TrEMBL record:
Pfam entry (one): Cpn60_TCP1
Protein name: Thermosome subunit
Residue segments, region Disordered: 1-31
InterPro entries recorded: Chaperone_TCP-1, Chaperonin_TCP-1_CS, Cpn60/GroEL/TCP-1, GroEL-like_apical_dom_sf, GROEL-like_equatorial_sf, TCP-1-like_intermed_sf, TCP-1_chaperonin, thermosome_alpha
Family: Belongs to the TCP-1 chaperonin family.
Source organism per UniProt: Natrinema salifodinae
């Protein structure tokens, strides 16, 4: 039914008849319920004992993961408020690379606490103000939890291992992968900071995950254009071309009449001369490895093979940019302009067959500024989940190395934050105190969920964690194999970058307060 307002005694229609409008408590309840449902969908994946989700799309493709951002992005979510929770996970992933499930779960529980307050007639604006004040207290509490020790390689390994524990890592342990992750990040650490984009992950099916290794350079899915070309070139001078090394053809359809054998021979000779010129120009340039985004004629390939020049054709634009960035080569669009100054360099370029695929390894020299984690696995599901786990670990290690700040994991930081918020709440007047306290209650979802996922009673675990925090100053739910204990996470190497906790609090607060403030939903059909 069309929405209308009266003006001068006459009805004025402002919305179409197909529009649907939900107002007041109904709108708030609907939005909060949607946000809570999305958060609940990933809650059981949290922690080292978290479970996986199997996601099947309409085409039958299957994704098996416990990565929060992946789960939420793969789900077919239409409700706009629920989409805001997905955006929380996306923001967390973009900024710090991990903690997506934590951020989503906190956002959902902030909404749940807000719903209870609204039922008690606490105004949404008061809730929003209280939540923002509580978030400021939370950030101060995180700062108080930062480990005073310098972030060295041992702590970085602990950060990487904590990030990957409980995720699908095939036959590898999180501890062994952590070594590779830290080595990769250290390799791209410069005076200007960590160049995270210089670490890539390349997946390959066809071997045990134990074959995963660090390659000092890059890998592209290409094979030589001719079997007689060398399989490897040492101290390579690399040219990257955006040129077709074949007979040029026009864009306009045309026919040429040949009246004699002499004209045919002349046409063939001209074509051969053009191809010979391509091969000669490349050979005379001094390049011994060529990557081109275009095609290479078989006759040119043969001539270049005779010169022991290794050539790869048909590169995608992204691969060409990757090779150029890694080797320092300049892409050339006109063959006659090719000069030695345009060349890139690498200690070694090798063409290898791995499983059923042909790969080009560009290693060392200028290429060594970029490193690749070469991920192996027996199935597509294994390598995909391993890639996600390693990607998150690379992000959090880079974050920890740049900030130099880590905090205890295993729910200890959330316990400390909630304790400080409750302490500060006592000095806040009015109903806003209820919202501040509710914020602390919402943060309890992290240790409670960790406890539930390990088989502990969530309430008993929360009581014991609070008591241990009061007496010891730091307490988390530490999982070591089959044993679960309440102890100082730092003593067990369970640590997270402080920025992961900060981002989770900030993004969850932002999303929750935005949803709580909505009291009118107008949807067009």
């Amino acid at each position: 039914m069309a929405q209308q307002r009266r003006m001068g005694g006459q009805p004025m229609f402002i919305l179409s008849e197909d529009s649907q409008r939900t107002q007041g408590r109904d709108a708030q309840s609907s939005n909060i319920m949607a946000g809570k449902a999305v958060a609940e969908s990933v809650r059981t994946t949290l922690g080292p004992r978290g479970m996986d989700k199997m996601l099947v799309d309409s085409g039958g493709d299957v994704v098996i993961t416990n990565d929060g951002a992946t789960i939420l992005n793969e789900m077919d979510i239409e409700h706009p408020a629920a989409q805001m929770i997905v955006e929380v996970a996306d923001s967390q992933e973009e900024e710090v690379g991990d903690g997506t499930t934590t951020a989503a779960v906190i956002a959902g529980n902030l909404l749940g606490e807000a719903e209870d307050l609204i039922e008690q007639d606490v105004h949404p604006t008061t809730i929003v103000e209280g939540y923002h004040q509580a978030a400021e207290i939370a950030l101060d509490a995180i700062a108080e939890q930062v480990n005073e020790a310098d972030v060295d390689d041992e702590i970085l390994r602990q950060v990487a291992e904590s990030s990957m524990t409980g995720k699908g890592t095939g036959g590898l342990t999180a501890e062994s992968l952590a070594e590779t992750v830290v080595e990769a990040v250290r390799h791209v650490n410069t005076d200007e900071g960590v160049k995270r984009d210089n670490v890539t992950v390349h997946t390959q099916i066809g071997a045990s995950s134990n074959a995963t290794e660090l390659v000092p350079g890059i890998i592209v899915d290409e094979e030589p254009v001719h079997d007689a070309m060398p399989n490897a070139v040492e101290d390579a001078s690399i040219a990257i071309l955006d040129v077709e090394l074949g007979v040029r053809t026009g864009d306009v359809d045309a026919e040429y009449a040949i009246d004699s054998i002499d004209q045919l021979n002349a046409a063939i000779d001209a074509e051969e001369s053009e191809l010979d010129n391509y091969a000669e120009t490349v050979a005379d340039s001094g390049a011994d490895v060529v990557f081109t985004t275009e095609d290479v004629d078989d006759r040119v390939a043969t001539a270049l093979a005779n010169e022991d020049i290794l050539v790869f054709e048909g590169l995608g634009d992204s691969d060409a940019r990757k090779v150029a960035s890694a080797t320092g080569a300049t892409r050339v669009g006109v063959l006659e302009d090719l000069e030695a100054d345009d060349f890139g360099a690498a200690d070694r370029i090798a063409a290898e067959t791995v499983g059923d695929d042909d790969l080009a390894f560009v290693e060392g020299g200028a290429a060594a500024e970029t490193v690749t984690v070469f991920v192996r696995g027996g199935t597509e599901h294994v390598v995909d989940e391993l890639e996600r786990a390693i990607g998150d670990a690379l992000d959090v290690v880079a974050t920890a190395l740049e900030s130099g700040e880590v905090v205890p994991g295993a729910g200890a930081t959330e316990i400390a934050i909630a304790d400080k918020i409750r302490e500060e709440a006592a000095g806040i007047e009015g109903r806003k105190q209820l919202a501040v306290t509710a914020f602390a209650d919402a943060l309890d979802v992290v240790p409670r969920t960790l406890a539930a996922n390990t088989g502990w009673d969530p309430i008993d675990a929360l009581v014991d964690l609070r008591a241990a925090h009061e007496s010891e100053g730091r307490a988390g739910l530490v999982t070591d194999g089959d044993e679960v204990t309440i102890d100082d996470p730092f003593e067990h190497g369970v640590v997270d970058p402080a920025d992961v906790k900060r981002e989770a609090v900030e993004s969850a607060t932002e999303a929750a307060t935005m949803i709580v403030r909505i009291d009118d939903v107008i949807a067009a059909e």
